[in-house]
Amino acid sequence: MLHKDHGHRRSLMQGASLPVLTALACLLPLPALAQVSPAQTPPAGVPAGPDGPLQSAPEELSQTPQGGGRAGGEIVVTGTRIVTGGFDAPTPTTVLGAEQIAANAQPNIFTTIAQLPSLQGSSGTQVNTFSTSSGQQGLSSFSLRGVGAIRTLTLLDGQRVVGANVTGVPDVSLFPQLLVQRVDVVNGGASASYGSDAVGGVVNFILDNRFEGIKGNVLGGITTYGDDEQILLQLAAGTSLLDDRLHLVTSIEYDDEAGVPGGNYGFELANGRDWFTGYSMINRGVLNDGSPQYIMRDRVQTAGYGKYGLITSGPLTGTGIDAEGNPYQFQFGSPCYGSLCLGGNVAGNVDAGRSLRSAIERLNSYSRVGFEFSPGHEIYATVNLARVRTSNQPVNGANRPGLTIQCDNPFVPQAIKTRCATAGITNFGFGTSNASLGNTRVDTERRQYRYVAGVKGEFGIGERDWTYDLYGTHGINYTDIDVSNIMLNPRFNQAIDVISLNGQPACRSAAARAAGCQPLNIFGDAASQAALDYVVPANGPYQRTRQTQDVVSLSFSGSPFDLWAGPFSVAFGGEYRREFYRVEADPYGAGFANTPPNADYPADPVLNASGNGNWYAGTYKNGRGVYNVKEAFLEANLPLFDSTAIGQANLNGAARVTDYSTSGVVWAWKVGGTWDTPLDGFRIRGVTSRDVRAPNLSELFAAPVTTTLPNFFDPFTNTNVLVIQNSIGNTALTPELARNTTVGFTYNPAFAPNVNLSFDYYNLSIKDVISGLAPADIVQLCFQNVLPETCAAFDLSNSGGSGNFVNVQAFNLASIETRGFDIEASLRLPQPLGLPGSLTLRGLATHVIEYITDTGLPGTIPVDGAGSNSGATPDWKWLMIQSYETDTFSLLVQERWFSDGTYGNQYVVCAPGSCPVSTSQRPTIDYNTLKGAFYVDIGATVNLTDEVTLYGKVDNLFDRDPEPSPIFNNPALYDQIGRVYRAGVRFAF
Fold first, then answer.
1. Which Pfam family is one of those matched by this entry (predicted)?
2. Rounded to two decimals, what is the model's pTM?
3. How do 889-898 and 933-943 pair as beta strands?
4. Which of 211, 363, 244, 253 lies closest to 988, judged by CA?
5. Among 402, 495, 809, 816, who pairs with 730 as Cys (CB 3.0-4.6 Å)?
6. Rounded to whole angstroms, what are the CA distances from 77 to 1, 67, 149, 205?
7. Three-point CA angle 500, 506, 509, nearest 5°
8. What are the backbone angles phi and psi of residue 643, rounded to the nearest 5°?
């Protein structure tokens, strides 16, 4: 069977191929990374390929709008909902074509897209590996402009996808990937066009739903350290029947990435990585002695616990315990600041135990059938079934400082008992890493079932062509989280309080003994199996989440009449959406009242009936919630003028009215335009918009968590009271409101058609940002009459304290403002220096001028996070590509770079003897530089035949280590893994 992928087999073979031969140097020419406008030839920022302008080539863009149906052959780029051609969308949109995606040779398309400079703070398998309870381990989700994944709308063929987390964000790992024809990244607000969450922008995956033929991909990879072994198998097939009226497409893929496990205690990372040295920010606790409050130091160790135990208070302080249970003199290092010391014995450090990258296994299938029941009208259905499994180790052991051990504990070494008697003490302070308990593991499984049915096409009214699109989606996501090898705190506390009973060690508490308590020897690595089974039960915490999303959407687009400068075009439509979630947890975490104990989790009077504080980590709760959305939108394009003297311009505007069942009606709008000036190839564009993000299911209906605050200050009575803290959702939340403005230009002169340049300035301001408050802040804001709505969140009127409560919940209080600019440039040189083929040079950059967050609390100073490399918004972030391509092979070199920054811009750097008084909002520090990073990737392809291509790629060629950081490392910016080799073969018939 011939591969008909829009009539261009060789282009697919070259572009859909990439990295080979373990150290070869280069990828495909990145032609498909471009700034584009709908329905037109290559605009500024779109390089041409060896056979002409790639972005306007039939196989790249001119196929189908928004997911496969025919609509007059027009192209819909995600910055607009107008299908009709003849105008340029004012919102900057970067497009990654199939060739660019293939050239990056990644087992997950998420990694390729996340490299774009405008994407800041995206998650992935390197992020959240330290987490036990977040539920976001291994979740691949995008964040544009650094404002978070919850403010970036991710679509599949222009349609919403059911969330893979209660925050509502989908997991890109669950998307079909081999059939991706292109990815549109809208760098600007798009709520008027697409609705809630499109504050930072939109990432839209466009599938090739008219693919014909068979194609596949086999990829393998491994790091230079011999871990994170990767295997990717992909296969897709498509055909047309019944005179090209029936279209069938299907794909299946399997991806297994072993991840990078945790290292050993101390500073030893996995498999010989040596960049972690215990670099820490130490708080001296002194604010006004002329020296900095915070100091940055290397090889910092805690004085609060040791690997197998450490006496931390009393006359025996400094006595450590080795693996055999023998006491020794612990080396604290010097100097010490509180519980932190420089140097000394670092064997008990637990941080090196976190996974550097979660293991992930993906299985994904996608099928689509479309039938043109009459010319220009197609009915279609799609099914996307996918499963993703991830696992990570949050940390080594389960450190417990601040313990009190009785000297009569029979497990206490005799030498220490003797010293207790000599010192005249009956107990001592103790801390341990609990190395004998083993390490916790978190396993997460997400299963997605997504069904779409629709009808789309075109019709005429008079002499005017219109398009329509009616579809419904039903998506279900199941997320199962299982935590294993983790302690129950109350059982641990009872098990280490040991006495001698009838000559045998036993738990001191008779009630605990009756409930099965087994004495635990925490002195060395000598715990009995019975004690381990009691403290670390076989059945750990779990969470079972079911989310559903139902959408019905109808939209139209057309040009009802012509004006003096061209056709007037409109798009309009409506949508209904329902979001639901239900979460169930284990009874030890959720609470016995909500989930009665069962055979796997028997009743235990030692445990807290509320569930709070039982598990060392991973306290999940039961909850549920639902809301619905009704909305309508209108978008219009008005041609302003079209003449040789003053050029061509259009005005584009849109409005959307949305009715949320929880918060009522809110409006979003945008207005912008483009002007093709008389200056050859010089286009000016700009857009300003009002965008919204509605509160998500988690913020509205968070599963409740209850804790006790015994000495809570009541400002109304000026006394301390007992308070019950209830962490809950807030159904009174309203949507966040944003103002997003972008102004820029593109330049692509006719005299230099292979030169492309674009520049866009952006300013994004978000108010009523949903953020949490501490219980003391909630009460104080009411007491000071600063935020009266917090007054309904507590009641301190009970003098006895039994009825006092504070509901800790999110409020619309904070704000975010960020501004900066994006630059993109490319140059293509056919037959450079007389050589065959073409050379493409390309660069993208984002500069963040400021990123200011304001908590909204009285007396606080807004913080500018631009250039803070412990966050997600460095001053500069670049992606540079140089590629050379011929008919038989291609080479690529890619550089990824971000600039030097700080740990935090709130710090005041000063030297001893010259520091001002340190404050909570302007603390002093002796060093505040967190260097950036520069990574080089190389790749190559070789076309063995027209159908078969070998490829290879090396990422992080020079094995660049992360910079020393007091937060261990920031995987949102830095590469934790090191050099990675990948090779594979692609085929298409």
1. TonB_dep_Rec_b-barrel
2. 0.89
3. antiparallel
4. 211
5. 809
6. 31, 11, 21, 11
7. 105
8. -150, 160
Residue in the structure block whose two tokens are 């098990």? 495
Mean per-residue pLDDT for 307-331? 95
Residues 6+ apart with CB under 8 A from 688: 670, 671, 672, 739, 740, 741, 742
Tell how many helices (H) and how many strands (E) occur in the chain: 11, 49
**Residue 829 tokens, joined:** 């040189």
Compute φ and ψ for 200, nearest 5 degrees. -75, -30
337 pLDDT above the threshold of 70: yes
Residue 199's nearest CA partner among 770, 874, 876, 850 is 770
Number of independent structural domains in the chain: 1
Determine, yes or no, domain membership for 848: no
- Number of Cβ within 10 Å of residue 88's Cβ equals 26
Instruction: Tell me the C-alpha to C-alpha distance, in Å, between residue 530 and each of 498, 525, 527, 600, 617.
Output: 14, 14, 8, 17, 22
* Domain hosting residue 518, numbered range: 300-345+400-433+489-535
- 503 falls within a domain: yes
Q: What distances in angstroms separate CA 949 from CA 217, 908, 987, one per listed residue?
A: 10, 55, 6
Question: What is the Cα–Cα distance from 561 to 588, expressed in whole angstroms?
Answer: 67
For residues 390 and 385, give the distance between their C-alpha atoms in angstroms, rounded to a whole number. Answer: 17
Q: Are 12 and 5 in contact (CB under 8 A)?
A: yes
Spell out where 564-702 has E strands. 566-585, 623-643, 647-660, 664-676, 682-693
What is residue 534's DSSP assignment? H
Q: List, for residues 365-402, the tens digit of each pLDDT value.
A: 999 999 999 999 999 999 999 999 999 999 999 999 99
CB atoms within 10 A of CB 763: 17
Predicted local confidence at residue 142, as pLDDT: 96
**Coil, strand or helix at 511:** helix
Which strand (E) or helix (H) includes residue 686? Answer: strand 682-693
pLDDT, residue 774, reads: 86
Answer whether residue 38 shows pLDDT above 70: no
CB 74 within 8 A of CB 65: yes
Task: Provide the pairing of β-strand 924-925 with 908-909.
Answer: parallel
What is the residue-wise DSSP string for 837-853? SEEEEEEEEEEEEEEEE
Least confident stretch, 57-61, 477-481, 650-654? 57-61
**Overall average pLDDT of the 877-886 stretch:** 95
Cβ partners under 8 Å of residue 772, min gap 6 = 808, 809, 810, 811
SS3 593: coil
**Cβ count near 980 (within 10 Å):** 23
DSSP state of 488: B
Secondary structure of residue 391 in the 3-state scheme:
strand
The answer, yes or no, to whether residue 452 has pLDDT greater than 70, is yes
Question: How large is the average pLDDT for residues 147-159?
Answer: 96
In a domain, residue 516? The reply is yes
Using CA of residue 11, residue 16, residue 22, residue 24, what is the dihedral sign?
positive
Q: Over the stretch 95-147, which tens digit does the pLDDT of each residue have?
A: 899 998 999 999 999 999 999 999 999 999 999 888 887 778 889 999 999 99
Other CB atoms within 10 A of residue 860 CB: 11
What is the average pLDDT across 816-820?
97
Tokens of 489: 């705190």
Question: Could you read off the pLDDT of 226-254 as tens digits, one per residue?
Answer: 999 999 999 999 999 999 999 999 999 99
pLDDT for position 721: 83
Q: What is the DSSP string of 872-903?
A: TB-SEEEEEEEEEE-SSEEEEEEEEEE--BBS
Does any domain span residue 506?
Answer: yes
pLDDT at position 490: 95
In which element (H, E) is residue 589 found? helix 587-590
**Containing H/E element for 772?**
strand 755-772
